[in-house]
Each structure stands twice: as structure tokens, then as C-alpha cells.
Amino acid sequence: MKAQFLIQLILIGLVINTYYVEGIFYLPGMFPKDFIKGEAVPLKVNKITSVHTQIPYKYYSLPVCQPGKIVDDGENLGEILLGDRIENSIYNISFFEEVDCKVLNYYDKDCDPWIDVDDLKVLNDRVKFQYKVHWLLDGLPVVQTGKSPIDTGYDLGVVGWESSGQYQKGKNYIYNHVNIKIHYHENTEAGTYRIVGFEIKPVSTAYDPDSWNRQTDQSMCPEIPEEVQTVTATDKQYILWTYGVTFVKSTVLWNKRWEPYLQSGEKSIHWISILNFLLIVFFLTVMVAMIMMKTLKADFRRYNSMDANEEAEETGWKMIHGDVFRPPQRPMLFSVLVGSGTQVFFMASVTLTFAVLGFLSPANIGGLATSLIVLFVLMAMFAGYFSTRVYLTVKGKNWRKNTLMTAFGFPGAIFGIFFIINMFLRGAKSSAAVPVGTFFAIIAMWFGISVPLVFFGSYFGSKKPIHEDPVRTNQIPRQIPDQVWYMNPYVSILMGGILPFGAAFIEIYFILSALWNDQFYYIFGFFFIVLIILVITSAEISIVMCYFQLCAEDYHWWWRSFLTPGSSALYIFCYTILFFTKLQITKSVSILLYFGYSLIMALGFFVVTGAIGYYSCHKFVRKIYSSIHIN
Fold first, then answer.
1. Per-residue DSSP letters for 257-283?
2. Same domain, 177 and 40
3. Where would you say this protein principally sits, based on its record (predicted)?
4. Is position 254 within any domain?
């Protein structure tokens, strides 16, 4: 009842703080913008990115014309971590005022078309690594005309790979003219318009320096030549930045304008993989059911029918009843990992629930990353509570030290990896480098919110009585008999991790593709189903392997229950190495960035699946040993 009331309270609060607009929910500040003829349309510039370097930069790190005062939009934490820097531009666009060609405000004394060698080197380097430019118009990201599937951003330039046509091998060409196409939907009753599409067709144009005069021509373009604009880094070069604007009427409604960005042409692959693993889960469930209903019932009948004189003939898992609840080695590390896994699990579950319900709009750039970070901090209370409960369950004595380890252990490892990555990004002058103020804000969230919540949860966990073990533990540990090769801890743990990895690796492929190929990932329905399959698979494989282990009279099940599904993280990390070979990353900083974030993902997967395995196995062990009579 308490859980239902809490869920209802959360949903009511979300409804109160959201608004229903044209069929879907939008957070405050995400209302449609109605334009009228002649109204200015603010074009925002964002970062530039490359799949070859994975290092984003600010748009104004390029030698382009800048406004007299650069105004940053208020970025959230997710935007900052992703390298987004949304700023104003000097592109003069008015609704329904079409322009064939216009010079980008070069009558400003700070906008000199003659670019010096140092800036040309930067421009040449960005074109060489095939950087893309990201702009925003009414919150809608730009796409390049003619590209399929839809990919956000447009190419900064092009590299001549073959000596054919206009582009010659070994030369880099800059796209210095952009044809802006704005798709709009008309509200005939109100006489207003809404932007539903934003495309750009970039063009390389080599203007003659003598064909345009800043003082007399101002914004008017010179005659457009047929030559393309190369980029060299040997001498000053004349590059004139120009643009054109056209408006196209569209039947797409405003609330449907994001659909082309979010459509996945590979949904059949998702469904096939999900159906395959649903079958695997079904057979695994049948196996567990057979163990629980047939094999265990036979064991119960046999064990409970024995009298005191037959005790010497005991075999199987009953034989080790005096050792099965013996505390594991390194109980504090064990409890910290279980508590951290619980924290990550609740963070992922709540985020996915909100995402599936539609509360994470793609228009809110960085909203998903911000949600993950904030929820990770808030869920620290669960880490403290469950870590302390596990620690006291395994007969731990110093729960306060365990609380400190929980508060600083797993978050400290994540922060350490992030700190190293951030230092290298700062050295590369990337926009993804976290500013000093934001960096201290993250530390303040950790020490000011997360750590107190860990202690808060731990305090309540220590006050709640611990359930007594269903059987007594002997003072002298029993010798474990020799095991067959497939019950060797290393072999059984590695075998057990295959199924949880198999349940998730298809979805991980799409996540990695979206993350490192600069695409949108918003198919959360599939991800939610995969999470459910992952939970069931991790729990059942842990129970099955635990039963086999106990039947072999090996009572060291605590760590084995955690590591069996947790070993799937090793396969995940190996898979990221295989995926890396399909990328085109070249720079050492980019390689560090990739493997650093891959390691963070693998660590999160490790503690989550491990915690699921432990809790399911612990419940199973308590259940079977409380169902027999011990002589």
C-alpha cells in the first residue's frame, strides 16, 4: 500500500508540473512558438563535433564572424557534460523574407574576410577530421539536406579523396555558403506559423576578393563563381561567409516535428533480439521452476523423512547447513558493491520509467544526462540503506566505516575516471571540458547531498532488526570436497555471465552507435523491456548456479552469487573494444575518452547485475534452508 501511494504521489506531482499540449506532454518552457510574417527568427549556434575525434568544440572556436557580445543560453548539467554550448548568432532571418545570397555581416570591423595562417590551421584541421556544425532554430537541430537516415548537423567542409569533379585529392574544402531551408506549418485561423523543419545545404564557393567591397556592397553577395573554396595553411586567405534562406510549407504538425529525428529503421532487429531472449528467459524460468518444484520437493521429502540415526547419510546441499551462512571474505567490500548496485538500479529504473512515459523530451538538450546524474545523487539513500543491511546480515561490526566506504567507494571510482578524462579534455580545449564552477558544483552535490543521504539511509538500515539465519553456523568451517572442472569458480562465474550479456548486447550496440556516432537514442520502450529481461536473466542464472554449487557441497556462495551475473560486465567491456574497431577514432585523447566512458558503463553494469544476483540468491538460500528440519 505504501508503494502504491508513493507511485500515485509521484505521478500526481508530474502531472501538476507538466502541461498537455497537442497530444503529448511537454515540460514548462517547451511550448510551441507562433511566428508572424516579418518576425525575427533567432538562429542559435552550438558545438562542432566529429566521429573521428569525439572531441567537441565551441562553434566560435572557428575563425567565423561573431556577434559583438556572445550570449550563452543557460545550459543544464547534461549539456555541459556533453559539450553543448548554445550561443547567439548574427544570422539575420525574418519569417517569410527569403534571401538568395547575403554576406554574413562583414561590414562589422571585427569580421575580416582575410583569415591569418594560425586560424587557417585550425579550420583546416577541423575539415580534415570531418567536423559537423550543430545549429538550433526554435529548439530544432539542423540536418543536412539529402542525408539519409537523418543525421543532426551539417558538414563543415569536405576532404578530396579522389581527383574527380571539383574536389581534388589531397585538398580540403570549406563550406562557406549555406542554403537555409525552414519548413513551417501554417495555422490558418490564427494567421501564425510554427517551425517544423530545419535543413541546410552547404556549398563551397570561392569568392573573388576584388568582386566585393565592404563599404559599398555591405551585405549584398558578389557574383557567385563556379570555383570551390579550398583551405590552405600557408598564407592568409580570403573566405567570405554567405547564406541564403527559403521557406517551405509543410503538413507536419508541430508536435510531430521530432518524429523524423527519432525514427529507427532497425526496429525489427530490436524485436527479433527481444523475442529470442524472451525464449531464453522462458526456458531458464522452466529450469528454475523444475529445480524449485521437482528437485527441491524431492530433496525436502528425503531430508525431512530422515531421523537422527540417518544423519550421517546426508548428502547434497543439506550437508553444509552448518556453513552455508558463514560470512564471506571481505564483507565490507561485498556490502558496498551490493549497495552501489542497488543505487544504480533504482537510478536506471526511475529514469527509464519517466522516459517511457514521455517526460524526457528530446527538445530538452542534456535532459537525459541531467536526470541520470541527479537521480544517481538522490538514490544514494538506497545505497546507504541496503549496504548497511547487507553488512549487518554478514555479521559486520563497523557499519559506520561501511557507510563511509559506500559514500566514497563507487562514486569515487566514477569521479576519478571522470576527473582524468576532464583533464585531457581541458588540455584539448574542448567544449566538453567541465568549467571550474560546474566542477565544484558536482563536488558540492556529492559531498553536500549524496554523502548525507548515504548516512541517512544507513542510519535507518542499522535500526531495522536483521532476520535471523534459518540454521545455526558451526564454529569450525567444513572442508569443501574437490569440485568438477565446470564448478571451478572462474569457469562457473564466466559461464554465468554469458546470458545477462546476451540479453543486453543488442541494445548496447544501439546505445554505443547513438553515443559515438552523434545520433539520437530515444527508443526507451525497447530499453525498458531489455532491462526487465536482464533482471530476470541475472536472477535466474544466479539461482541455478547457486543450487548446483550447494549440491556440490561448496558453501562459498555469497561472492559467487554476485560475480556470476556480474561477470557479464567483462563481456560488455570486451564488446566495447570490438565496437571500437568499427569506429574511426584516431587521436589519443579520443581513445582515452572512449575507453574511460566504456569503463564507467561496465562498472555500472557490474554492480547492477551483481546486486540482482545476490538478492535473488540470498532469498533462494534462506527459503530452502528454512523448509527443512535440521537434526
1. TTHHHH--TTHHHHHHHHHHHHHHHHH
2. yes
3. membrane
4. yes
pLDDT, tens digit (0-9, with 9 covering 90-100), for 381-430: 999 999 999 999 988 888 899 999 999 999 999 999 999 999 999 999 99
Same domain, 135 and 96: yes
Q: Which among 326, 339, 340, 343 has a CA at the least distance from the CA of 388?
A: 339
Residue type, 486: Y
65 plus 78 within the same structural domain: yes
Q: What CA–CA distances, in Å, run from 316 to 285, 296, 487, 550, 555?
A: 23, 11, 15, 7, 11
Determine contact, residues 157/175, Cβ cutoff 8 Å: yes
Q: Which residues, including other chains, have CB under 8 Å from residue 337's CB and lie 6 or more apart? A: 410, 562, 607, 610, 611
C-alpha cell, 244 = 541564403
Residue 3 binned pLDDT confidence (cut-offs 50, 70, 90): very low
Q: Which of 422, 438, 355, 397 is nearest to 593 (CA)?
A: 422
- Are residues 299 and 239 part of one domain? no
Residue keyed to cell 534562406: 245
| Number of independent structural domains in the chain | 3
Instruction: Determine the Cα–Cα distance for residues 275 and 280; give it in Å rounded to an integer.
Output: 9
Looking at the domain assignment, is residue 243 inside a domain?
yes
Q: Which domain holds residue 13?
A: 1-31
Condensed to tens digits (0 to 9), the pLDDT of residues 223-277 reads: 666 667 777 766 788 888 889 999 999 988 888 888 887 765 555 565 666 676 6
